Amino acid sequence: MTAEKIIMAGDFAVHVTEHRGQKNMYIRVSPPDGDITVSAPAGTPDQLIKNFILRKIPEITKARERMRRQFRQSEREYVSGETCYFWGVPHMLQVVCGGRRSEIQTVPNRIIMTVPEGTPVERRKHLLTEWYRSELKRMLCVLLPECEARVGVRSSACNVRNMKTRWGSCNISRRSILINLQLVKKPVECLEYVLTHELVHLLEKNHTNRFRSLLDKYYPSWRQAKQILTDMPLEHLGK
Q1: Residue 30 or residue 117, greater confidence
Q2: Is position 238 within any domain?
Q3: pLDDT of res. 237
Q4: 236 lies in a domain?
Q5: Strand order in 110-115's β-sheet?
Q6: Residue 95 is inside which H or E element, if any?
Q7: How many domains does the structure of the chain reveal?
Q8: What pLDDT digit, counting tens, does each position of 137-149 carry?
Q9: Pair 64, 87 in one domain
Q10: Which domain range does residue 223 map to?
Q11: How many alpha carbons lie under 13 Å from residue 13 in its C-beta half-sphere?
Q12: H-type alpha helices, 70-105
């Protein structure tokens, strides 16, 4: 069972979740806007949570500044000449208008989108998004069993969703994993890192020292993959 609330700590509005059986407090600063989440043991007094957050202000400020500095791509129009990332490699989008069919093909360094004349931007966006989704699922069919075998656990399901604040999440009680669609635009090792990260949550619920030790054991290069996710361009944020 969990309880949720929002408290003010200085100038920060912090989303707090309280968990029965949890022993320590953990803080998370989430992209793209630096939203702050604290996970705390059930019944922790608000003042203790506020003091914990205030002690973390230097780290919070540093993380938020890093997020603001990270390069973000311009808003998409889904026209020829735009840059689209696919497994970490920039591809030039080429839009071909003609015929009745809509399809996407890849050739070296290019993504070719064929659509009927007059296809609106939203339809082109949907076509590319669903193509990305199918490619990510194709890779998951290969990588997920490998990661499960390495970690020694099995997930009940692995689904894909376009998320703004997390690369992945794990529902421990259901043993299900959620993967951010945007990972299809990052190098494959980033997807492998996120999968391993979420599977390790089935062995250790929180981001404890044991959790990091397990990540070191099952994916030793996880810090490098995490840094790639930090350094690569972010998607444009729509309203």
Answers
A1: 117
A2: no
A3: 44
A4: no
A5: 83-86, 89-97, 110-115, 103-107
A6: strand 89-97
A7: 2
A8: 999 999 999 999 9
A9: no
A10: 83-231
A11: 4
A12: none
